[in-house]
Amino acid sequence: xxxxxxxxxxxxxxxxxxxxxxxxxxxxxxxxxxxxxxxxxxxxxxxxxxxxxxxxxxxxxxxxxxxxxxxxxxxxxxxxxxxxxxxxxxxxxxxxxxxxxxxxxxxxxxxxxxxxxxxxxxxxxxxxxxxxxxxxxxxxxxxxxxxxxxxxxxxxxxxxxxxxxxxxxxxxxxxxxxxxxxxxxxxxxxxxxxxxxxxxxxxxxxxxxxxxxxxxxxxxxxxxxxxxxxxxxxxxxxxxxxxxxxxxxxxxxxxxxxxxxxxxxxxxxxxxxxxxxxxxxxxxxxxxxxxxxxxxxxxxxxxxxxxxxxxxxxxxxxxxxxxxxxxxxxxxxxxxxxxxxxxxxxxxxxxxxxxxxxxxxxxxxxxxxxxxxxxxxxxxxxxxxxxxxxx
Length: 391
Fold this sequence. Notes:
The chain is an alpha/beta fold. It has two domains: 29-222 and 378-389, 3-Layer(aba) Sandwich (Rossmann fold); 225-374, 3-Layer(aba) Sandwich (Rossmann fold), CATH 3.40.50. It contains 16 helices and eleven strands. It has helices at residues 3-10, 14-28, 56-65, 93-98, 100-113, 134-143, 160-166, 181-198, 249-252, 254-267, 283-288, 304-311, 322-332, 346-355, 357-374, 378-389; strands spanning 44-49, 70-77, 89-91, 116-120, 147-152, 202-204, 217-218, 240-244, 270-274, 292-294, 315-317. The chain has a seven-stranded parallel beta sheet. A four-stranded parallel beta sheet has the order 9-8-10-11, with helices on both faces. Helix 3 (56-65) crosses helix 16. The radius of gyration is 22 Å and the shape is globular. The protein starts with a helix and ends with a helix.
């Protein structure tokens, strides 16, 4: 929606918005899908939604089911799943936001069929009910006997003022063309206050988010390791192949590292390839063809892409803060095998890789084990069972 149109739209009373949107759906022949039903034979039944960022809602659901006592269903607004990650149930944003019939049906389905709801990224689980008021929706579910939890994914709980103190390369240092820091500060502060007010079991997908949510439990991202395992050799080319595939160039720090990588490419030291919108199903082969993966250099954390790269047996370079390293080492029982690399040290690290290949091969070989300890689903399942699902 164009910003000017959106500004006008927000002036329309919510009941009128709902009526207009429902009429549009009816004219277009859109029929909201019935709410999803879990396996009712399982004593614990969890609904996860509604954002599924990087497919994590789906992965956490599958991980929880390996306990043998949980049936889990994830759902997502279609607009939040543009990369088409697997999802159990998909509904349009317009339906969730404006269809009172769908909202009522979803409320009934949850209270009749589910024991737990895990809300992702502070998005209201019941869409536009109560104008999307997270507190009122949570209170209603709790009144009906449903246990509610929250999981933070990223920027919705990453406070700019705090992040600016943790790393000088924070994306909020020059964010006017991305998310103006003052606007993000206000929105994130509101989310953090809502989480504090709700006082429900809280998780974070990555360890760096514990800075803003210290009361939360580290849940960890989950990947399908079998999809990424390969036997391709590493660091055997004279000119090593270095790839960088930013989903969000500003957040990944692409402008800060590409000049260095391109200069080393022109020098003949490396072969640098910047990926552009490679379909997800093609990425395992692309990853296997590389020697070094440049992940991110601004957030100070690591996530799905780094785990996929480590499982592929590649050398992963990223800027990861000491706080993140201490947290994940405490859970994994081994250090994170990602050499800390900043925009200022990238050239030095790449030259060192070329000069000391065997040492970096040895480090890369530990990546698969690290991911198996924290990111294959077992750790996330245990965290959910311990802190949320096992009442």
